[in-house]
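Now read these lines:
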Amino acid sequence: MTEAPLPTRKRTEREKILQSKFFEHLAAQSDLMDKISAQLLTVELAIPGLYAALLKLVRGDKAIIAMSTATTLAFLCWMAALTLTLLSLLPRRYIVDVSLMKQAPGKMDEAIGIEDFFLRTAVYKRNLIFIASGLFFAGVVCALFI
């Protein structure tokens, strides 16, 4: 039984534009994660500073925080969140085979394809940002009990 070839046609302009936008979106995900990290970094630096300033305003010259478990946990969570956010902004080195668009799943330890590079970078940054956000929120909750 012989199979007939599948009919083909040229891609339309609309299809070319959609495909181009898809790949632009895929490549821009890492940049989006960098922008989110920068915003999160701003918040992570501002909140502890505001907390200390408000404490000084409310308590005056006697603005001393007693070292309790909540205090320790709050500042540890804030420091861990800050560290993870900074790590998400640092570049990582990947071995990329530029002749491949997507590497076979079994060969990922050798080199990754171009599409894999963009996806791995974005997923790595997203995971760090997600954990950092959770830790920062936990620090805020702990600060409420000080």
